[in-house]
């Protein structure tokens, strides 16, 4: 190892402040310089100091909310607010009732269908950008167009489906004009179908980017080897492309899963507000000032989300994407 | 079936390319056509509603956006007359502060993560919790806790911590992804030539990291600008833009919302455009840096 402290020693002397400088200033610069030198010699301590501020921030503002919902889920909702108490009534009412289970299953149904749809919709798109679009500039442009909506407002993107799907909406008008249907379809808006369409269109941007990213990492030689050995495009896809794009697929899926489990806006705005998912149920409890039972549902939703995510994380390491 | 597959493939081959391109066109249409429809409807006539048909063409909804609370001959009972622009201003201020804090803290942490330290896996998952934990849960927990502590709710003081908490893991992941593909040879050279770790970071690592820093700034800014799940219950009376949009959507939808959506979408496009311009510039610069170092006498 190089000893870096020795060559720097003369430097330190040249930088020493003149003797007339106030004593305090000398000592502060000295302390700072000693501190820096200490950190240079102890990178472990430096690492700790670097990672600490952000970690404390996360501990405070993830830890406190989690701790408080756990605590308050054992309290009671009174007229003026939460009343300290220690009972499991909130959980008993929740887990004993049929509504909660129905809504939990419904939540998973929605999220899984949303995820499956996003995968089916995103794969051909990413694949097309990767193999079918030939010009590199076009590739970048199309990929960018597929990703840019990620940086626009989620709420706006949801609301834009209202004039598309309504009774007088664009889709109904086009279908009527084409003579496909006799009268406007009612199922296009404020139904689970419109909600699902909304979720697909919202979430697809989370999938195309990571998938494409994984595809570009596939060695071109692997693809030509598959072709030369006589694999059909379909076989190549299932035996080469699919396994090699798993990191991107998982990263996108994780995002869809996490956002889907916490979703309430789409359901409220274009889903007709009739079939709440768990997050929507929490909001409805808050609306009627049932903070304790809202906390109990929040605890359950958080546990479900953590279990789901850790099951998915077992399949891959996010840091290696 | 195996015998027939190549035959089908050879027949279908000329069709595959146009089919894929048509599909790409369909996906792009799904992503962008609603924006176009929204923009058209934002010029709805004064008597028109939030869906087709267009009843004349006017800019009254934009006028309403810039003149909040003013009644017009066309104003309706129950119309949402909130001051969207003030909340947009709040959201932008919040997003700028969030993006700076988030990028700085994540940059620091990423330096530690790439070197590795004891318990780094655990700390990484702790950071990841910020993304994983459902937003409404965070919002509920913090709002109940703030209320018990008698902390006044305000979009900046109680809003900022939550916004940074949400963007911080994204910034960290961006930096970690960057370091996964990072070539350390320039850093090693600086260290071997006797530069301190700080000088190496300041003069070698940081300039090379510019693209990642820009990406982190973009993500933190846009995620914060759009944040509504986590800040839903904790911003108090002066709401941020997404929260005001949420409130007005659940009461009554008017084309003002489309006017607002059109303007904010254009703002987002402008931000992304600025990002891309800066990214191209910094990529070119860092490439020059790398090339210049491998060829010190090269023309610069």
CATH fold description of the domain at 84-183 and 211-291 in chain B: MetI-like fold
Distance between the first and last residues' Cα of chain B: 62 Å
The class by helix and strand makeup of chain A works out as mainly alpha
For this structure, what is the CATH homologous superfamily of the largest domain in chain A? MetI-like
Could you tell me the strand content of chain A as a percent range? under 5%
- CATH class categorisation of the domain at 84-183 and 211-291 in chain B: Mainly Alpha
Largest chain interface and its two residue counts?
A-B, 97 and 98 residues
Strand order within the widest beta sheet of chain A: 1-2
Share of helix among residues of chain B?
A: over 70%
Coarse shape of chain A? flat
How would you describe the shape of chain B?
Answer: globular
CATH topology of the largest domain in chain A: MetI-like fold
Mean pLDDT of chain B: 86
Mean pLDDT over all positions of chain A: 85
Give the helix tally of chain B: 10
CATH-level-2 architecture of the largest domain in chain A: Orthogonal Bundle
How large is the count of helical segments of chain A? 16
Short structural summary:
Chain A has about 325 residues and is an all-alpha fold. Chain A has 16 helices and two strands.
């Amino acid at each position: 190892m190089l000893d870096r402290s020795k060559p720097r020693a003369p430097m330190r002397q040249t930088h020493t402040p003149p003797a007339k400088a106030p004593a305090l200033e000398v000592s502060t610069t000295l302390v700072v310089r000693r501190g820096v030198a200490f950190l240079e010699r102890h990178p472990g301590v430096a690492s700790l100091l670097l990672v600490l501020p952000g970690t404390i921030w996360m501990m405070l503002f993830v830890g406190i909310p989690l701790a408080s919902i756990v605590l308050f889920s054992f309290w009671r909702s009174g007229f003026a607010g939460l009343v300290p108490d220690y009972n499991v009534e909130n959980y008993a009412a929740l887990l004993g009732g049929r509504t909660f289970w129905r809504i939990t299953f419904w939540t998973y149904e929605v999220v899984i269908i949303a995820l499956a749809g996003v995968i089916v919709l995103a794969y051909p798109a990413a694949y097309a950008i990767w193999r079918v679009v030939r010009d590199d500039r076009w590739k970048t442009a199309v990929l960018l167009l597929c990703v840019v909506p990620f940086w626009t407002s989620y709420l706006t993107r949801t609301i834009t489906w209202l004039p598309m799907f309504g009774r007088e909406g664009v889709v109904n008008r086009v279908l009527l004009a084409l003579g496909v249907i006799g009268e406007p379809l009612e199922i296009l808006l404020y139904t689970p179908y419109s909600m699902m369409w909304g979720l697909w269109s919202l979430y697809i941007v989370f999938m195309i980017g990571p998938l494409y990213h994984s595809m570009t990492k596939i060695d071109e030689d692997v693809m030509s080897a598959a072709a030369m050995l006589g694999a059909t495009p379909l076989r190549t896809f299932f035996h080469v492309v699919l396994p090699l794009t798993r990191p991107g697929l998982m990263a996108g899926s994780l995002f869809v899963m996490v956002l889907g489990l916490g979703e309430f806006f789409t359901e409220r705005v274009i889903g007709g507000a009739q079939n709440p998912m768990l997050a929507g149920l929490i909001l409805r409890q808050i609306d009627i000032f049932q903070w304790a039972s809202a906390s109990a549902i929040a605890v359950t939703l958080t546990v479900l989300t953590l279990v789901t995510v850790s099951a998915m994380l077992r399949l891959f390491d996010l840091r290696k994407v | 079936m195996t015998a027939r597959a190549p035959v089908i493939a050879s027949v279908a081959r000329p069709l595959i390319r146009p089919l894929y391109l048509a599909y790409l066109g369909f996906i792009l249409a799904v992503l962008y056509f609603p924006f176009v429809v929204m923009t058209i409807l934002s010029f709805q006539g004064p008597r028109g509603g939030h869906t087709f048909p267009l009843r004349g063409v006017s800019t009254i909804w934009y006028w309403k956006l810039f003149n909040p609370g003013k009644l017009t001959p066309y104003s309706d009972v129950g119309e949402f007359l909130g001051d969207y622009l003030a909340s947009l201003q709040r959201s932008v201020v919040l997003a700028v502060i969030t993006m700076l804090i988030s990028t700085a803290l994540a940059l620091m942490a990423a330096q530690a993560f790439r070197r590795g330290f004891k318990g780094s896996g655990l700390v990484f998952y702790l950071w990841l919790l910020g993304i994983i934990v459902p937003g409404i849960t965070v919002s509920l927990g913090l709002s109940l806790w703030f209320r018990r502590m008698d902390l006044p709710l305000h979009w900046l003081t109680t809003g900022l911590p939550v916004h940074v908490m949400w963007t911080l893991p994204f910034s960290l992941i961006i930096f970690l992804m960057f370091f996964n593909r990072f070539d350390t040879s320039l850093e090693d050279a600086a260290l071997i030539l006797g530069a301190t770790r700080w000088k190496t970071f300041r003069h070698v690592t940081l300039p090379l990291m510019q693209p990642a820093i820009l990406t982190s700034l973009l993500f933190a800014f846009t995620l914060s600008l759009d944040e509504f799940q986590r800040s839903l219950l904790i911003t108090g009376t002066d709401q941020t833009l997404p929260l005001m949009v949420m409130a007005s959507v659940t009461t009554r939808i008017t084309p003002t919302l489309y006017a607002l959506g059109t303007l904010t979408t254009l703002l987002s496009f402008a931000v992304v455009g600025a990002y891309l311009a800066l990214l191209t510039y910094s990529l070119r610069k860092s490439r020059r840096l790398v090339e210049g170092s491998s060829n010190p006498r090269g023309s610069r």
